[in-house]
Structures are given as structure tokens and as C-alpha cells.
Amino acid sequence: MKHIISVLVENKFGSLNRVAAMFSARGFNLESISIGETEDTEISRMTIVTRGEDQIISQVLKQLNRLVDTIKVTDLTRQPHVERELLLMTLKLSKTVQHEIFELITVFKGKVVDIKQKSITIEVIGSPDKINTTIDIFRPYGIKELARSGAVAIHRGE
Amino acid sequence: MHSSGQTLNGSEIFFECLRRENVEYIFGYPGGSLLKVYETLHDVKDIHHILVRHEQGATHMAEGYARATGKPGVVLVTSGPGATNTVTGIANAYMDSSPMVVFTGQVPSSLIGNDAFQEADIVGITRPITKHNFLVKDVRELAITIRKAFFLATTGRPGPVLVDMPKDILNSSCVFDFPETVDIRGFKPTFKCHINQVEKAAQKIAKAKRPLLYIGGGVISAEASEELRTLAIQQNIPVTMTLQGLGAFPGNHPLSMGMLGMHGTYWSNQAVNKCDLLIAVGARFDDRVTGKVDTFAPQAYKIHNDIDPTNVDKNIKVDLPIVGDAKNFLATLLEVMPENKENREPWLAEINAWRVQCPLTYSSEDDSLRTEFVIDEVSRQTSGNAVVVTDVGQHQMWTSQFYTFINPRSIITSGGLGTMGFGLPAAIGAAFGIKDRPVVLFCGDGGFMMNVQELVTAVHNKMPVKIFLINNSFLGMVRQWQELFHQEKYSFTDLGDSNPDFVKVAEAFGCKALKADNPESARLAITEALAYNDGPILVDFRVVKKDMVFPMVPAGGSISDMLLARLNPKTMV
Fold first, then answer.
1. Which residue ranges of chain A lie beneath pLDDT 70?
2. Is residue B566 over pLDDT 80?
């Protein structure tokens, strides 16, 4: 089962490496990992998407906790949370499909961030599942390049 | 001694911090990026620097010292190759949870990342084999970093910590401020066990008909042997130990069952198989202990106490996990434990029947010399009171079987990583820490050659290490697997044609040396070696080539797959 884990770490060089290296050394699955500073500049938040049975996920959480640079580890999967990913994608553009593409962008609540004679770059924000669907739907039109941010997630406020 | 508030350079701060951490010995080797440190060291009289001959030797010495004393071992090496040579020793300490602080010199900060002369990213290299590591980027951070390194190495589950110190940091100055306390927000090990869990454990123990204590090295590092002894005797519970746990409970007590696992005693493994309650304390269900996990202790309710939560439910799913310090667990358990009312005699009788059925034995029918005899004889002559260091292989397993460990901190061995070459330097390190008990090394002829250079360190410092070289001219354990599982293809394990004359080697280093090739000469050589204290002494025991260690549970096998072959009639219990 898929799990989304939020980790607060010391904002120090090497923190990301320690986490990523622990996943590879112990053979844990790592679907995405994203990191950025928090409201406290000494602390960064990492959002990790991983997959595994409960026993494996329990080990993942404990091994994360064991790292000296990690301050707090939360498995958000079964808690109320908001999860978002950013997709940037450049598509081939031609007169014949232009209209369809613009319609689909509206359907996915995307934005056009750049447009050229033969290409269009769009952004879409949503859950990783929505991003997967977006990519599937746009694929037939010709994806030239795409970049995904990996999921970021946070607890829902009280 | 300098005081806080003075302006000092990085090297002076380094030694001030070590003083405050009560460091007695540094095992080290100088080099370019450490010149300033060694300049300062020249006038340091209260901390003893032991010059090794290879940085790997320094790490094993530090670990031997740490394991013998319980204090952290300290290593000091230069950048680049000096640092990379410590990798095996650090990995070894990590696997066996030994407290160690390794200081590495580093190229000047401005050159880091430039492929400078003698540069290696040792922080990157050692990240997965240290508990934590640091690169010091500012001299004002040096004191707090050293304080944190010792705190991390010795708190909770012990382990190695590395501090990388660029050359310019050691040369620059700042106002010295030694922090008395240290707080690391990401590091709060659970020391105190949850009382409800302990009470539940007590109830389970009180009702168990066939309980078994399964004791690991955590009991020794937590100094909890006294509590263990009280619990086992009060409750009449037999005790089996892991390789690292040997000595936690006296081996000569009737409740002691010796070691369990791949080369454990028959009765220990049978007891694991049949027990209704397994109480694991400071042990981690290693694959060499469990064999096939599905069939491990199939009838038992499992209690697991460990200081490291990652050890719980890692290999074996347990019924009652109790995270916390082993001493705290056992002491609390004793407080809440009801009086023992269960009659455990039938269970103990069953165990004794297994003991009689398949005792540990070795052949004594001819006049050839056997490793088991040597170890048995050393155990007898030292009354189990020696600090016993081993290398890795057959002799190591025979040591677990035939040396009777009475006290904790009596076996120092590479268990987790299985590092050949560990023994000699570890024994030297142990001898620096322990002066009132003999330090005995059992080492194979293969492993001895892997760090033979440290014989110089032993001779130079007159360390009275008894080097008992178990010389079968073979990589014996590999040979055993080749015979049993690889069609007797003795591929590159026969050292007979290439081994040197070990007596001459020792003598060339200035080490006294003897040779023995039959039981009588071995007995005399052991007596002579134990009486000799003017420095190291080596005895080259020419033992038979073909002996194998039994019992043996093949890797990944169940207790029912245990091999008992080649058992001989003579009974040794």
C-alpha cells in the first residue's frame, strides 16, 4: 500500500542524502521525495511517498526516526491531510489539436505558462493520482518533456 | 589544562575536549592534514597516543578497548587513505554496537570537492556505517561537535561516530567554550521501559511453563548482568546467549545453556524450538541466530526488549515489544515480578536430557592437536577469567563452545560484520584497557595475516597479549562450507604452501614465540604463555586441518536441519 510520510529534518547539508541513502541501503521503495525549508529556517520538511506492507512501513518509520538529523516523522496516510504535486509539461502544438488541448487544460484546472509556435508548456497541480491521469490524457497529443515535483503534503488544520 | 574563555586554536581545542571526555588513549597515525594536531600532541602528557601501523588496526584497537572497558574508543587518522582505511573498523563497530569516536583530518575547507591531494569524502563514505557523522565547518563548532560525537557514541545503542576536521579549522582560533550539556532534538532514545509492558511481561513469565531467556550483547553494554543473574535464578529460567551475549550470565551456572544459533549448542536450539515463552533482551534476532524465521521458536510467546526500536519486529514479529534500556527493563521486571510458583523442573530436566543426548565433544583418540582442546585447556588454565578476543572463523565458534565465560566483557569478537583481521588489534586495544586480567587472543592463520603489522604495536608497547594462533593452514570455515555444501572443491582455501613460518615472523617483530603440535606440548606452551608478561607471546598451534564445527544449522535452515555429524564419543560438558 502507498504511504505518504512527512519528515521534519535539520536543515543541514547531507540530511537529504542520509534519508535517501537509508532507503537504498535497506532496500525500501522510494517513489518520490521532496524537501524544502519550513517556517523555521533551521528545519526542512521532507515529503516521502513509499509503498510497502505494514511491517515494512513500520520499519521505514523507525529507521527514519533513528537518523539523528530527523526531528519528527509522521505517517500522514491514515490522517486527514492535503497532498499536492506540481506537473510542468511541454506538449507539441498544432492547429488541429490546439482546441482540444485548451479544453483539457480547463478540465484539469491547469495553466498555460509558456506558448510558442509549435509547443505549449502547462502547469497542473493536484494529487499524484490526478497528475498521473493528466499525463495519461495528454500523452496522445505528444509530450515533449515533463517534470514532476513529487508530492508535498501537510496535515489538515484543526 | 586550558579553561573555557581562553582563545585556543583548533588543535588545542581538540585535546581540551578529549580531556574533558576523560579519554585515556588515542589510537592513531599522523599525516599531512593532521600536522597541527600532532604538533600540539607532542606536548600533551595526560592522553596517551598509541601509534598503530595501519589505520584499520587503530579502529579495531579502539573497539577492543571499548568492548573491554565500556568506554568509547578513540581513533585519530589523517585525510584520504588514512580515513578510508578506517572504513572496515567503523563498519565492524556499527554492526556490533561498540562506542567509538573516529577523528579524521580533512583537506583545507577551500579545497574540499576539488579532488585535492589526499582528499576523500569520508563523511559521505561512512554515512551508512556510522551512527552519525560530522564535517566541522567552523572552529567555533569544533567543541560542541566533539561533545555531540561522544554523547551520540555512548548514549542509547552505542555505535561509532566520525568527526571530519579540515586542516584550516585545526589551525584557526576561537574562544574555547566547552558545553557541559548537550541536547540533540532529533536524538532522544527511550531509556525507561513502559511500565505496563513490563508488568505484562512479568505476568507472562510467572505463568510460563517452559520459559527461555535469550540474551544478547545489549545486556553487557547496559551493564545489566547482575539483574539478569537475579532474575534467572529467582525465577529458575534457563539462559541462552548470543555470541556477543556470552558472559552476561556465568557459563558455569547450571542455568547457563551457552550459545544458540548456527553453531549454538544442541540443547539451546532445541529449547528455542520447544519453549512456550521467549524473553529476548538486548538481542536482535540475527539470521545466524534464527535460521529460517518461519520456524524460529514456533510455540513461544515472544517478549523483546531492546534499546533500539528498529530491532523490534525487524526479522521476527514479536508479541510484546518493550523498547528501553536492558538494565532498566530487568530491574523493573524484578520489582514487579511475583514470586515464582511454576514448577520448572520438568522443563529443566528436558533440557538436561538434550544436553546429555548431544554434548559438545571433540576427538581425543590420537595424539594430534585440536583447536577445541587448545581452547578448552586455556579456559581451564585461566579459570574462565581471561578477556578472550577472537578473530573470525572456526576458532571463533569453537571459542563460543569450549571457553567457559564467567563474567561480562570477557568475549571480544567480530560478530555482525565477521571481520577477519579484527582479532590481533582488538586484543591489543583490550590489553590497554584491562591490566588485571589476562588478555587472550584466538586467531586463525588466515586472519592473523590480515593485520599482522600490529604485532609491532604490541611489541613496542610491551602489551602482554597471549596470541594463540590456531594454525590449520586453511581458511577453515570456508573449507567447512566447501566440504559440506560445495562438492569438496577447496578453492583457494589451502594456505599450506604459502603460509610463512609464524614463529619466525613473530621473532622478526621482536615477539616471543613458541610452537606446539600435540596436546602435551600445547598444554605446556599455554602455561608458559600465561605466565609471560613482558610483552606479547605467540604460540603457533599446529592443529588438524579437517575438523569441522558442529552442531551446525545450515544457513537459512530450521532447527530440524541441524547437523550433528562427526561427533565423537568423548563427552565434554
1. none
2. no
Contact A89, A137 (CB under 8 A): no
Rounded to the nearest 5°, which phi and psi values hold at B173?
A: -120, 160
CATH 3.40.50.1220 is held by the domain B195-357: yes
Question: Does residue B565 surpass a pLDDT of 70?
Answer: no
Q: Give the length of chain A.
A: 158
Please give the average per-residue pLDDT across B530-534, as a whole number: 97
* ipTM surpassing 0.95: no
Active-site hit among B39, B71, B118, B137: B118
* Chain A touched by B322 (CB under 8 Å): no
Taking only the tens place, the pLDDT of each residue in B195-240 is: 999 999 999 999 999 999 999 999 999 999 999 999 999 999 999 9
The model's pLDDT over B288-341, given as tens digits with 9 standing for 90+, comes to 999 999 999 999 999 999 999 999 999 999 999 999 999 999 999 999 998 877
Q: Do B128 and A22 touch (CB under 8 A)?
A: yes
Chain A segment 26-45 residues within 8 A of B by beta carbon are none
Cα of A130 vs its chain's centroid, Å: 11
Contact of B141 with chain A, judged by CB distance below 8 Å, is answered with no
Letter for the amino acid at B375?
Answer: I
A69 lies within 8 A of chain B by CB: yes
Report B:397-426 residues touching A (Cβ under 8 A): none
Which pLDDT does position B363 carry in this prediction?
Answer: 84
The strand pair at B256-259 and B239-241 is best described as parallel
Output the CA–CA distances (angstroms, integers) from residue B278 to B376, B498, B551, in the order listed: 30, 48, 22
Closest to B244 in 3D by CA, of B309, B157, B322? B157
CB of B152 within 8 Å of a chain A CB? The answer is yes
Write down the pLDDT at residue B567.
44
Strands A119-126 and A81-92, how do they pair?
antiparallel
B-chain CB neighbours of A14 within 8 Å are 123, 127, 135
Residue with grid cell 515464582, as numbered in its chain: B340
Its pTM surpasses 0.90: yes
| Domain B7-175 architecture | 3-Layer(aba) Sandwich (3.40)
Is domain A2-75 classified as CATH 3.40.50.12780? no
Long-range contacts of A51-56 (CB under 8 A, 24+ apart): A51/A1, A51/A2, A51/A3, A52/A1, A52/A3, A52/A28, A53/A1, A54/A1, A55/B313, A55/B317, A56/A28
Residues contacting B265, CB < 8 A, separation 6+: B240, B257, B258, B259, B355, B360, B401, B551
Give domain B371-546's CATH number out of 3.40.50.2000, 3.40.50.970, 3.40.50.300, 3.20.20.150.
3.40.50.970
What is the DSSP annotation of B155-210?
SSS--EEEEEEEHHHHHSEEE----S----TT-----SPPHHHHHHHHHHHHH-SS
